[in-house]
Specification:
alpha+beta, Alpha-Beta Plaits, about 35% strand
Length: about 325
């Protein structure tokens, strides 16, 4: 009995441990489309050249944001629909200016079209006739709100909701001094590149000072709008569907999350801890070092003719 109890406790502890691990990993595991990168590295050899690569990423907090909201208004007349939508937009604009005087507000006109519907005309001896008649107007505008503090977005969304503006189209992130971040990355990459050159010189017992070198580098920028993914997390029972039986599935909630570029494949990372969505700047520099081929002495072969004398002797004669 004691052995059985110990065995049950052992199995129970394993199950609890597995649950803890599952909780720490998060519901992202329900996303079946996520593929983990391979850990095998591709390595190749070249007889007469060496390629040295340095790659880094900088996680940059944006200092300017632009939120775009879509506004739609219906009305019976052109005057009415304009007055209604302008009242809603001006209410949001006034609040934003009171929230922060530096907030920039811009209204973008999208469309202004008449609306129609069909009126049924009934006749005694004829079929029904549907006549299209105007019923009003529809106007659409986008409002662009430029702010500098991410906390302000919550207040902006609240005042938009109070004015029946619910469609947040997108949020754009901007970094004012991107050139400063580029210089920081190139400086860091150059230091690591020189360290790698010295490392390869030491293990190859060679000096690359007079070797032929070719350099290629490039930047890539990734914004938060490009880095969001989605998944559905749920657990449902499996049943055998019998004939003439209807099964109604409930619509599952979709979860979206920010997925930045992982820093596992980089030689250096600037600002590694990511708490909020950031602009990710990637820099890579490649150096190709060509080795001089070993000089081989070429022995010139002189051309001779050999002939046999009447006495049977073999003699060499220079053709020159």
């Amino acid at each position: 009995m004691k052995i059985q109890k110990k065995l049950y406790l052992f199995i129970f502890s394993i199950l609890i441990f597995q649950n803890i691990l599952a909780q720490n990993s998060g519901n992202i595991n329900y996303n079946q489309n996520i593929k983990l990168s391979e850990t095998d590295l591709y390595l190749d050899f070249s007889k007469d050249e060496l390629i040295i690569q340095v790659k880094g990423v900088s996680n940059i907090k944006a200092d300017n944001y632009v939120a775009v909201f879509s506004v739609t208004q219906l009305g019976k007349t052109a005057k009415e629909v304009n007055e209604l939508i302008n009242t809603r937009i001006n209410s949001v604009k006034t609040y934003c200016k009171s929230l922060d005087s530096k907030i920039v507000f811009y209204t973008d006109m999208i469309s202004f079209v008449p609306m129609y519907e069909y009126e049924v005309e009934k006749k005694v001896f004829n079929k029904k006739t549907y006549n299209e008649i105007p019923i009003g107007f529809e106007i659409k505008k986008n409002i662009h709100i430029n702010y500098t503090n991410t906390v302000q977005l919550d207040a902006i969304i609240s005042v938009c909701a109070e004015n029946e503006i619910y469609d947040l189209v997108r949020v754009d992130y901007f970094v004012s001094d991107m050139e400063k971040n580029r210089k920081e990355m190139t400086t860091k990459a150059n230091l690591l590149l020189n360290e790698k050159i010295k490392y390869y010189e030491s293990i190859l017992n060679m000096d690359f000072t007079n070797s032929n070198k070719i350099i290629s580098d490039n930047f890539a920028t990734f914004y938060p709008v490009e880095s969001y993914q989605s998944y559905k997390a749920y657990s449902s029972s499996s049943i055998e569907k019998e004939k003439r039986v209807n099964v109604n599935d409930i619509t599952k909630s979709m979860t979206m999350y920010y997925m930045p570029k992982f820093d596992k494949n980089f030689d250096f990372v600037i600002n590694p801890v990511i708490v909020e969505p950031v602009v990710q700047l990637v820099y890579q520099i490649n150096m190709k070092i060509k080795f001089e081929k070993e000089k081989q002495e070429v022995v010139k072969q002189e051309n001779f003719y050999y002939f046999i004398t009447p006495n049977g002797e073999l003699k060499k004669m220079d053709i020159k």
